[in-house]
Amino acid sequence: MEEKSSNETTDLPSLDASGLAEFIRFDCCPRYFKLRFEGDEESCHKWPEAFKPLSPLLYGAGKKIEEKKAQELKAKAADYRDLSDFNPRTDDWESAWKKTLQTIMELLECSLSAKTETAYKPVLIYQAPMKGHIGVWDIKGIADLIGIWPIKNGKVKVRIFEIKSSWKEQTAHRIQVAIYVLLLTKGLGDFSSNVDFEGCVINKESDLDKLDAESLPSFRLEPLIQDVQRLLSGNGELYRIHQIALSEVAYQLSWRCDNCGFNECCVVRAIEKESIALLNLTRGEQKALKCHGILRLEDLASLKVVPNSDDQRPYNFKEIPALDPQKVRLLSADPVIGAKLDKLIQEPNSCYSEYDPTVHM
Ligand code: SF4
Question: Are residues 314 and 202 in the same domain?
Fold first, then answer.
Protein backbone atom coordinates (compact mmCIF):
# COMPACT_ATOMS: atom_id res chain seq x y z
CA MET A 1 0.00 0.00 0.00
CA GLU A 2 1.60 3.29 -1.09
CA GLU A 3 1.76 5.85 1.75
CA LYS A 4 0.87 9.50 1.08
CA SER A 5 3.75 11.98 1.43
CA SER A 6 3.60 14.54 4.25
CA ASN A 7 3.03 17.33 1.68
CA GLU A 8 -0.10 15.58 0.50
CA THR A 9 -1.52 15.22 3.99
CA THR A 10 -0.55 18.39 5.90
CA ASP A 11 -3.68 20.24 4.82
CA LEU A 12 -6.00 17.62 6.28
CA PRO A 13 -8.51 18.78 8.89
CA SER A 14 -8.47 17.32 12.37
CA LEU A 15 -11.24 14.77 12.95
CA ASP A 16 -13.16 13.77 16.06
CA ALA A 17 -14.31 10.29 17.00
CA SER A 18 -17.97 11.20 17.56
CA GLY A 19 -18.11 12.95 14.16
CA LEU A 20 -16.73 9.83 12.49
CA ALA A 21 -19.31 7.70 14.29
CA GLU A 22 -22.01 10.01 12.92
CA PHE A 23 -20.51 9.72 9.42
CA ILE A 24 -20.89 5.92 9.72
CA ARG A 25 -24.42 6.31 11.13
CA PHE A 26 -25.42 8.40 8.11
CA ASP A 27 -24.44 5.54 5.81
CA CYS A 28 -20.93 7.00 5.21
CA CYS A 29 -22.49 10.06 3.55
CA PRO A 30 -19.60 11.92 1.85
CA ARG A 31 -21.47 15.22 2.14
CA TYR A 32 -21.76 14.72 5.91
CA PHE A 33 -17.98 14.31 6.11
CA LYS A 34 -17.39 17.48 4.06
CA LEU A 35 -19.88 19.58 6.04
CA ARG A 36 -18.78 18.31 9.45
CA PHE A 37 -15.02 18.58 8.93
CA GLU A 38 -14.46 20.84 5.92
CA GLY A 39 -17.71 22.79 5.68
CA ASP A 40 -16.43 26.37 5.86
CA GLU A 41 -17.93 27.37 2.52
CA GLU A 42 -21.44 26.38 3.71
CA SER A 43 -21.17 27.25 7.42
CA CYS A 44 -20.69 30.94 6.56
CA HIS A 45 -24.19 30.96 5.02
CA LYS A 46 -27.23 31.48 7.23
CA TRP A 47 -28.74 28.05 7.97
CA PRO A 48 -30.87 28.50 11.09
CA GLU A 49 -31.25 24.75 11.71
CA ALA A 50 -28.18 23.31 10.00
CA PHE A 51 -24.68 23.02 11.52
CA LYS A 52 -26.21 22.05 14.86
CA PRO A 53 -25.52 18.32 14.66
CA LEU A 54 -27.43 17.55 17.85
CA SER A 55 -30.32 19.51 19.32
CA PRO A 56 -29.70 20.73 22.90
CA LEU A 57 -32.71 18.66 24.00
CA LEU A 58 -31.31 15.40 22.57
CA TYR A 59 -27.83 16.21 23.83
CA GLY A 60 -29.24 16.82 27.34
CA ALA A 61 -31.14 13.49 27.32
CA GLY A 62 -28.05 11.60 26.10
CA LYS A 63 -25.85 13.23 28.74
CA LYS A 64 -28.30 12.29 31.51
CA ILE A 65 -28.31 8.62 30.48
CA GLU A 66 -24.52 8.63 30.26
CA GLU A 67 -24.21 10.06 33.79
CA LYS A 68 -26.82 7.62 35.17
CA LYS A 69 -25.10 4.57 33.67
CA ALA A 70 -21.68 5.78 34.84
CA GLN A 71 -23.04 6.21 38.39
CA GLU A 72 -24.49 2.66 38.31
CA LEU A 73 -21.06 1.31 37.45
CA LYS A 74 -19.22 3.60 39.88
CA ALA A 75 -21.05 2.05 42.83
CA LYS A 76 -19.52 -1.34 41.97
CA ALA A 77 -15.98 -0.22 41.08
CA ALA A 78 -12.82 -0.41 43.21
CA ASP A 79 -12.12 3.26 42.47
CA TYR A 80 -13.51 5.97 40.19
CA ARG A 81 -11.65 8.86 38.57
CA ASP A 82 -13.60 11.65 36.93
CA LEU A 83 -11.37 13.38 34.34
CA SER A 84 -13.94 16.03 33.40
CA ASP A 85 -11.51 18.61 34.83
CA PHE A 86 -9.06 17.83 32.02
CA ASN A 87 -11.37 19.75 29.77
CA PRO A 88 -9.86 20.22 26.31
CA ARG A 89 -12.31 23.02 25.59
CA THR A 90 -10.84 25.18 28.36
CA ASP A 91 -7.38 23.60 28.56
CA ASP A 92 -5.87 22.48 25.23
CA TRP A 93 -6.13 18.98 23.75
CA GLU A 94 -2.42 18.28 23.96
CA SER A 95 -2.22 19.00 27.68
CA ALA A 96 -5.57 17.25 28.43
CA TRP A 97 -4.29 14.15 26.61
CA LYS A 98 -0.95 14.21 28.48
CA LYS A 99 -2.74 14.34 31.85
CA THR A 100 -5.10 11.53 30.82
CA LEU A 101 -2.22 9.35 29.69
CA GLN A 102 -0.33 9.99 32.92
CA THR A 103 -3.38 8.98 35.01
CA ILE A 104 -3.89 5.82 32.95
CA MET A 105 -0.20 4.87 33.16
CA GLU A 106 -0.22 5.24 36.96
CA LEU A 107 -3.32 3.07 37.25
CA LEU A 108 -1.88 0.46 34.89
CA GLU A 109 1.33 0.27 36.92
CA CYS A 110 -0.78 -0.19 40.07
CA SER A 111 -2.76 -2.97 38.38
CA LEU A 112 0.40 -4.70 37.17
CA SER A 113 1.81 -4.78 40.69
CA ALA A 114 -1.53 -5.80 42.30
CA LYS A 115 -1.43 -8.86 44.57
CA THR A 116 -3.34 -11.92 43.33
CA GLU A 117 -5.71 -11.83 46.31
CA THR A 118 -6.92 -8.31 45.31
CA ALA A 119 -10.66 -8.28 44.59
CA TYR A 120 -11.11 -8.48 40.82
CA LYS A 121 -12.84 -5.13 40.53
CA PRO A 122 -11.92 -2.42 38.03
CA VAL A 123 -10.91 1.19 38.51
CA LEU A 124 -13.16 3.33 36.31
CA ILE A 125 -12.05 6.48 34.50
CA TYR A 126 -14.84 8.79 33.40
CA GLN A 127 -14.59 11.29 30.49
CA ALA A 128 -11.06 10.68 29.24
CA PRO A 129 -9.83 13.11 26.52
CA MET A 130 -7.62 11.43 23.90
CA LYS A 131 -5.79 12.50 20.80
CA GLY A 132 -3.32 11.15 18.27
CA HIS A 133 -2.66 10.24 14.69
CA ILE A 134 -4.25 7.29 12.87
CA GLY A 135 -3.41 6.65 9.23
CA VAL A 136 -3.01 10.11 7.70
CA TRP A 137 -5.42 11.92 10.06
CA ASP A 138 -5.16 13.73 13.40
CA ILE A 139 -8.00 12.56 15.54
CA LYS A 140 -9.35 13.33 18.99
CA GLY A 141 -12.28 12.55 21.24
CA ILE A 142 -13.47 11.96 24.78
CA ALA A 143 -13.99 8.33 25.82
CA ASP A 144 -17.03 7.99 28.08
CA LEU A 145 -15.57 5.40 30.42
CA ILE A 146 -12.45 3.22 30.73
CA GLY A 147 -12.22 0.23 33.08
CA ILE A 148 -8.86 -1.08 34.30
CA TRP A 149 -8.92 -4.50 36.02
CA PRO A 150 -6.08 -5.88 38.22
CA ILE A 151 -3.53 -8.17 36.57
CA LYS A 152 -4.69 -11.69 35.72
CA ASN A 153 -2.71 -14.28 33.72
CA GLY A 154 0.10 -11.76 33.26
CA LYS A 155 -2.04 -9.07 31.59
CA VAL A 156 -4.10 -6.07 32.65
CA LYS A 157 -7.57 -5.87 31.14
CA VAL A 158 -8.56 -2.43 29.83
CA ARG A 159 -12.06 -2.03 28.51
CA ILE A 160 -13.22 1.12 26.75
CA PHE A 161 -16.94 1.85 27.09
CA GLU A 162 -19.18 4.07 25.00
CA ILE A 163 -22.46 4.92 26.72
CA LYS A 164 -25.34 5.60 24.32
CA SER A 165 -28.96 6.59 24.78
CA SER A 166 -30.08 4.27 21.95
CA TRP A 167 -31.92 0.95 22.42
CA LYS A 168 -29.57 -1.01 20.21
CA GLU A 169 -25.82 -1.21 19.74
CA GLN A 170 -24.75 0.16 16.35
CA THR A 171 -21.63 -0.28 14.23
CA ALA A 172 -21.02 3.47 14.57
CA HIS A 173 -20.70 3.12 18.38
CA ARG A 174 -18.24 0.24 18.02
CA ILE A 175 -16.17 2.23 15.55
CA GLN A 176 -15.92 5.03 18.11
CA VAL A 177 -14.61 2.55 20.72
CA ALA A 178 -12.11 1.11 18.21
CA ILE A 179 -10.76 4.64 17.55
CA TYR A 180 -10.15 5.16 21.29
CA VAL A 181 -8.45 1.76 21.57
CA LEU A 182 -6.10 2.70 18.72
CA LEU A 183 -5.32 6.09 20.27
CA LEU A 184 -4.64 4.60 23.69
CA THR A 185 -2.51 1.77 22.28
CA LYS A 186 -0.39 4.33 20.45
CA GLY A 187 -0.20 6.63 23.49
CA LEU A 188 1.00 3.78 25.75
CA GLY A 189 3.71 2.72 23.26
CA ASP A 190 5.60 -0.45 24.35
CA PHE A 191 3.65 -0.51 27.60
CA SER A 192 0.56 -1.59 25.66
CA SER A 193 2.03 -5.12 25.35
CA ASN A 194 0.98 -5.62 29.02
CA VAL A 195 -2.62 -4.79 28.20
CA ASP A 196 -5.58 -6.80 26.90
CA PHE A 197 -7.88 -4.25 25.26
CA GLU A 198 -11.63 -4.82 25.05
CA GLY A 199 -14.53 -2.78 23.76
CA CYS A 200 -18.04 -2.33 25.12
CA VAL A 201 -21.11 -0.31 24.19
CA ILE A 202 -23.64 0.33 26.93
CA ASN A 203 -27.14 1.28 25.81
CA LYS A 204 -30.53 1.65 27.50
CA GLU A 205 -31.01 -2.12 27.60
CA SER A 206 -27.60 -3.06 29.03
CA ASP A 207 -27.69 -5.07 32.21
CA LEU A 208 -25.20 -3.48 34.62
CA ASP A 209 -25.97 -5.70 37.60
CA LYS A 210 -22.44 -7.03 37.78
CA LEU A 211 -19.17 -5.38 36.94
CA ASP A 212 -17.29 -8.58 36.04
CA ALA A 213 -15.56 -8.17 32.70
CA GLU A 214 -17.22 -11.45 31.65
CA SER A 215 -20.80 -10.39 32.37
CA LEU A 216 -20.61 -6.92 30.79
CA PRO A 217 -21.45 -6.67 27.09
CA SER A 218 -18.45 -6.79 24.73
CA PHE A 219 -17.67 -7.25 21.05
CA ARG A 220 -14.76 -8.46 18.91
CA LEU A 221 -12.46 -5.48 18.49
CA GLU A 222 -10.11 -6.73 15.75
CA PRO A 223 -12.44 -6.38 12.73
CA LEU A 224 -13.49 -2.89 13.86
CA ILE A 225 -9.87 -1.83 14.35
CA GLN A 226 -9.09 -3.00 10.82
CA ASP A 227 -12.10 -1.04 9.50
CA VAL A 228 -10.89 2.14 11.24
CA GLN A 229 -7.34 1.68 9.94
CA ARG A 230 -8.63 1.18 6.41
CA LEU A 231 -10.97 4.17 6.64
CA LEU A 232 -8.26 6.51 7.93
CA SER A 233 -5.42 5.33 5.69
CA GLY A 234 -3.97 7.36 2.83
CA ASN A 235 -5.87 5.07 0.44
CA GLY A 236 -9.05 5.11 2.49
CA GLU A 237 -12.51 6.46 1.76
CA LEU A 238 -12.04 9.63 3.86
CA TYR A 239 -8.96 10.72 1.93
CA ARG A 240 -10.83 10.05 -1.32
CA ILE A 241 -13.73 12.26 -0.16
CA HIS A 242 -11.31 14.95 1.01
CA GLN A 243 -9.99 15.27 -2.53
CA ILE A 244 -13.44 15.98 -4.01
CA ALA A 245 -14.99 19.47 -3.84
CA LEU A 246 -18.11 19.81 -1.67
CA SER A 247 -20.19 20.76 -4.71
CA GLU A 248 -19.12 17.53 -6.44
CA VAL A 249 -19.63 14.89 -3.74
CA ALA A 250 -22.52 12.50 -4.29
CA TYR A 251 -25.19 12.26 -1.62
CA GLN A 252 -28.58 10.65 -1.24
CA LEU A 253 -31.46 12.46 0.41
CA SER A 254 -33.29 9.72 2.29
CA TRP A 255 -35.13 9.00 5.55
CA ARG A 256 -31.75 9.00 7.33
CA CYS A 257 -31.38 12.72 6.62
CA ASP A 258 -34.33 13.48 8.92
CA ASN A 259 -32.01 13.07 11.91
CA CYS A 260 -29.04 14.90 10.40
CA GLY A 261 -28.19 18.43 11.48
CA PHE A 262 -27.23 19.37 7.91
CA ASN A 263 -30.62 18.43 6.49
CA GLU A 264 -31.69 22.00 5.73
CA CYS A 265 -28.47 22.87 3.92
CA CYS A 266 -28.58 19.68 1.78
CA VAL A 267 -32.25 19.94 0.82
CA VAL A 268 -31.97 23.63 -0.13
CA ARG A 269 -28.84 23.03 -2.23
CA ALA A 270 -30.46 20.03 -3.99
CA ILE A 271 -33.55 22.07 -4.84
CA GLU A 272 -31.46 25.00 -6.08
CA LYS A 273 -29.53 22.66 -8.37
CA GLU A 274 -32.61 20.60 -9.30
CA SER A 275 -30.38 17.69 -8.41
CA ILE A 276 -31.31 14.05 -9.02
CA ALA A 277 -30.36 13.56 -5.31
CA LEU A 278 -33.98 14.64 -4.64
CA LEU A 279 -35.23 11.35 -6.11
CA ASN A 280 -33.96 9.21 -3.19
CA LEU A 281 -31.57 7.46 -5.58
CA THR A 282 -28.60 5.62 -4.12
CA ARG A 283 -25.19 7.14 -4.74
CA GLY A 284 -24.48 4.22 -7.13
CA GLU A 285 -27.64 4.97 -9.13
CA GLN A 286 -26.74 8.66 -9.34
CA LYS A 287 -23.24 7.75 -10.50
CA ALA A 288 -24.70 5.55 -13.26
CA LEU A 289 -26.91 8.45 -14.44
CA LYS A 290 -23.99 10.88 -14.21
CA CYS A 291 -21.99 8.64 -16.58
CA HIS A 292 -24.68 9.38 -19.18
CA GLY A 293 -24.61 13.14 -18.52
CA ILE A 294 -27.75 13.18 -16.34
CA LEU A 295 -27.26 15.42 -13.32
CA ARG A 296 -30.50 17.38 -13.01
CA LEU A 297 -34.18 16.48 -12.85
CA GLU A 298 -34.67 18.26 -16.16
CA ASP A 299 -32.08 16.01 -17.86
CA LEU A 300 -34.21 13.03 -16.85
CA ALA A 301 -37.58 14.63 -17.57
CA SER A 302 -36.53 15.58 -21.08
CA LEU A 303 -35.72 12.01 -22.12
CA LYS A 304 -39.37 11.39 -23.01
CA VAL A 305 -42.33 13.61 -23.79
CA VAL A 306 -45.23 12.86 -21.48
CA PRO A 307 -48.77 13.49 -22.82
CA ASN A 308 -50.32 16.74 -21.74
CA SER A 309 -52.19 16.40 -18.45
CA ASP A 310 -55.37 17.68 -20.18
CA ASP A 311 -55.27 14.58 -22.36
CA GLN A 312 -57.31 12.06 -20.36
CA ARG A 313 -56.63 9.07 -22.61
CA PRO A 314 -54.71 6.22 -20.92
CA TYR A 315 -51.16 5.59 -22.14
CA ASN A 316 -48.33 3.13 -21.58
CA PHE A 317 -45.23 5.09 -20.53
CA LYS A 318 -42.90 2.40 -21.88
CA GLU A 319 -44.32 2.86 -25.37
CA ILE A 320 -43.87 6.63 -25.46
CA PRO A 321 -41.07 7.38 -27.97
CA ALA A 322 -37.83 8.73 -26.53
CA LEU A 323 -36.54 12.18 -27.50
CA ASP A 324 -32.99 10.86 -27.49
CA PRO A 325 -33.48 7.19 -28.47
CA GLN A 326 -29.79 6.30 -28.33
CA LYS A 327 -29.33 7.64 -24.80
CA VAL A 328 -32.51 5.94 -23.57
CA ARG A 329 -31.38 2.68 -25.15
CA LEU A 330 -28.01 2.90 -23.37
CA LEU A 331 -29.62 3.84 -20.06
CA SER A 332 -32.17 0.99 -20.33
CA ALA A 333 -29.30 -1.45 -20.74
CA ASP A 334 -27.45 -0.11 -17.68
CA PRO A 335 -27.40 -2.81 -14.97
CA VAL A 336 -27.77 -0.28 -12.13
CA ILE A 337 -30.63 1.94 -13.29
CA GLY A 338 -31.97 0.24 -16.45
CA ALA A 339 -34.87 -1.51 -14.72
CA LYS A 340 -36.23 1.64 -13.07
CA LEU A 341 -35.52 4.09 -15.90
CA ASP A 342 -39.15 4.68 -16.94
CA LYS A 343 -40.19 5.31 -13.34
CA LEU A 344 -37.29 7.73 -12.94
CA ILE A 345 -38.23 9.69 -16.06
CA GLN A 346 -41.86 9.81 -14.98
CA GLU A 347 -41.19 11.22 -11.49
CA PRO A 348 -39.59 14.55 -12.47
CA ASN A 349 -42.01 14.79 -15.40
CA SER A 350 -44.99 14.78 -13.06
CA CYS A 351 -43.30 17.41 -10.83
CA TYR A 352 -42.57 19.62 -13.82
CA SER A 353 -46.06 19.23 -15.26
CA GLU A 354 -47.39 20.80 -12.05
CA TYR A 355 -45.21 23.87 -12.31
CA ASP A 356 -43.75 24.15 -15.80
CA PRO A 357 -46.18 23.70 -18.71
CA THR A 358 -43.32 23.98 -21.25
CA VAL A 359 -42.16 20.49 -20.34
CA HIS A 360 -45.05 19.07 -22.37
CA MET A 361 -45.11 19.75 -26.05
S1 SF4 B 1 -28.73 15.61 5.42
FE2 SF4 B 1 -28.40 13.63 4.42
S3 SF4 B 1 -27.22 14.17 2.60
FE4 SF4 B 1 -27.04 15.90 3.98
S5 SF4 B 1 -25.20 15.53 5.15
FE6 SF4 B 1 -26.88 14.72 6.33
S7 SF4 B 1 -26.97 12.56 5.77
FE8 SF4 B 1 -25.75 13.59 4.18
Answer: no
